[in-house]
Amino acid sequence: MERFDAIVVGAGAAGMFCAAQAGQAGARVLLLDNGKKPGRKILMSGGGRCNFTNMYVEPAAYLSQNPHFCKSALARYTQWDFIDLVGKYGIAWHEKTLGQLFCDDSAEQIVAMLVAECEKGNVTTRLRTEIISVERTEDEDYVLQLNGATVVAKKLVIASGGLSMPGLGASPFGYKIAEQFGLKVLPTRAGLVPFTLHKPLLEQLQVLSGVSVPSVITADDGTVFRENLLFTHRGLSGPAVLQISSYWQSGEFVSINLLPECDLDAFLDEQRNAHPNQSLKNTLAMQLPKRLVECLQQLGQIPDVQLKQLNSKDQQQLVETLTCWRVQPNGTEGYRTAEVTLGGVDTHELSSRTMEARNVPGLYFIGEVMDVTGWLGGYNFQWAWASAWACAQALVEA
Ligand code: FAD
């Protein structure tokens, strides 16, 4: 039986960072993962360039039943702290858009940095390791039965993530441990995920697969995002849709403004005055992709007329169609393609300063396994770093 000060389950973003920080502060840490490689999601993230944080991190960018929970950790370990660390490793980065910071070169650099940080902290890392059971003894030790070994520690950190992308090792392990120790787990659902559409609409829009447009998208609860929308062969995607999917509940609609940068009414009036014989289709193609205009015309949403023939009632109808398109998604693509999992371990059960379970001394939850989910754009990794850092401080405090 091997004894450690702390055992961290999950060598993803949160687990590696927490193990490294605690190790560097002097704790003897064991980091476990059932996968072949550490940081598998990091490697896939940001199209292989890892959007590792965001310059505009703020608590309002996180969804949780307890919106105050994330504030303390985000304030104590900020995006600037992580940017500093990335700088120390000489990793070049750039802002892509909306404060989203990506590696210039490769996400592998972030994983290599975290591995190096773990080595600096003398962390013992065991990959391809199945955890068969977790028990807490009367002496307040956590005893983990692994395939081929038994390991013990006074502190157990669960950093096993959510359910998104089972192909990258996602599992319900963290929720099961939470339930085993009597913690409430809130219902989970896929977030940052494409929408699927009902049959007739899907078939009608399939010709648009690959078309991307700037948009403003609004959920029924009033949440708004201004980002690009992408038509796909399964439905709707792109950053606008991924963002709003986290605020969408089954059965609800979303409203889409396909012309957020244009006052369509004024544009049509102006064009009518200048070119009365111009077709409405060609006029709209000045503002929207031609394929989209043609498709909407075939669907009868855009009348086949010259501008001079467009009466004010039809113009109003057209403006409504293009700036307030109401779509009722059939569903989402689910955990298979979702970037995150909403819900999870109820944060009311945890200390926001240490991430320790209030009623189970020595048991900690960090990262995505808990009910804190960020927007698209580096917010989720920042939560992984910040919650891991807060936990690591607590691991070495006592
Ligand atoms: P994870 O990174 O999921 O790590 C959990 C670890 O636990 C995994 O290594 C897993 O193998 C291990 N594990 C699970 N079950 C067990 C078990 N039973 N036994 C042992 N080990 C186990 N966020 C951003 O901020 N920016 C991005 O660019 C970005 N891109 C993304 C791209 C993709 C394709 C995906 C899927 C997600 C992306 N995200 C991004 C979200 C981000 O990856 C997660 O929020 C983040 O990885 C969560 O970190 P975590 O450490 O909590 O969990």
Summarize the structure.
This protein is of the alpha+beta class and 398 residues long.
Shape: elongated
The main β sheet shows up as: 7 strands, mixed
By CATH reckoning, the class of the largest domain would read Alpha Beta
- Please tell me the CATH architecture of the largest domain by its name: 3-Layer(bba) Sandwich
Number of helices: 13
**How many domains?**
2
CATH-assigned fold name of the largest domain: FAD/NAD(P)-binding domain
By DSSP, the count of extended strands is 21
Using the CA coordinates, give the radius of gyration: 25 Å
> How far is the first residue's CA from the last residue's CA?
23 Å
Give the uncertain stretches in residue-range form. none
Give the averaged pLDDT, no decimals.
97
Q: What class do helices, strands and sheet pairing give? A: alpha+beta
**What percent of residues adopt helix (DSSP H or I)?**
25-40%
Bound molecules: flavin-adenine dinucleotide
